[in-house]
Amino acid sequence: MDPKNNYSKPSDGGSTPLILALKNEHENVAKALLKVKIIDILAMDVKGDTALHHAAASGFADVVKDLINAIFPEGLPNPIKTILFITL
């Protein structure tokens, strides 16, 4: 992937490439996009959903964990971590 490309630019429908990959259940594409450090992982689609919402809805536990680790690089507070990882 070309790091000069804008992988966070929303489509005409308001979804970023990461959100589109997750909406269309392309887990490997989503994982590749997460390796591009310049993407906006907190971007929202027109409904207000983020990549994390779509990853969870698609059942992509590994992508959910990768997104959480990217959002909270210092780690989750224990109460949230416990609830989340029991769920996953």
From TrEMBL:
Domain of life: Eukaryota
ANK repeat ranges per the UniProt record: 47-69
Signal peptide: none
Gene3D superfamilies reported for this sequence: Ankyrin repeat-containing domain
Pfam families in alphabetical order: Ank_2
Alphabetical UniProt keywords: ANK repeat
Matches recorded under InterPro entries: Ankyrin_rpt, Ankyrin_rpt-contain_sf
The name this protein goes by in its record: Uncharacterized protein
